[in-house]
Amino acid sequence: MRDKVMNRWSTYEPYYIEFNGYKVADIVITSHALSRWSERVEYEQGGIEHICSFLWERLKNCKVQPYYANEKDVYLIDDDLVMVAEFVELKDETDIAGNPLHKMIVVTFLGRVSQDIQLRDLKAYYSWLRHTRRMTLVKHGRKRK
């Protein structure tokens, strides 16, 4: 997803956005993220092109922030939507100064904080998930014996 719009004739917009120490030049949506988008974010509007344009606009307007200060994989969009993303260097692509450009791979969308209150503290949420899964496995283990 590159910026295709030109403001003036024969002048190009920069095709990367500086974000969290990365120069994002491309966005990739995984199939898991696509399914989570339709389940947890927007039921009517989906599709890779819609999601990429949504993320590109949010990145340009500085509406994407890291969820935790120390970690670089969970992000908060518009102070509401929680997203997990990874960054990979693009091969053979650099900016004018020769610095590497990056591809943002959206792994999943966890949901909206305004709809799912548990997302306010992700560490507690994941701890709760692990505990409930462990208890489910323990219950199934007891049934088999």
Q: In one word, what is the shape?
A: globular
- Total strands: the figure is 6
Q: What structural class do you assign from the helix and strand content?
A: alpha+beta
Helical content band: 25-40%
Number of helices: 3
**How are the strands of the biggest sheet laid out side by side?**
1-2-6-5-4-3
Question: Main sheet?
Answer: 6 strands, mixed
User: Helices and strands, in N-to-C order?
Assistant: EEHHEEEEH
Radius of gyration: 19 Å
Strand percentage: 25-35%
Q: Report the mean per-residue pLDDT as an integer.
A: 79
Q: Alpha-carbon distance between the termini? A: 54 Å
List low-pLDDT spans: none
Key descriptive features of the protein:
145 residues, single chain
What do these coordinates show?
With 145 residues, this protein is α+β, with helices and mostly antiparallel strands. It is built from three helices and six strands, in the order E-E-H-H-E-E-E-E-H. It has a six-stranded mixed sheet, sandwiched between helices. It is globular and about 60 Å long. This is Periplasmic protein.
Question: What's a quick, concise take on this entry?
Answer:
This protein is of the alpha+beta class and 145 residues long. It is 32% helix and 31% strand.
In terms of topology, how is this protein built?
Layout: E1 17-19, E2 22-29, H1 31-41, H2 48-60, E3 64-66, E4 74-77, E5 81-94, E6 100-112, H3 122-144
Organism: Paenibacillus oleatilyticus
Protein name: Periplasmic protein
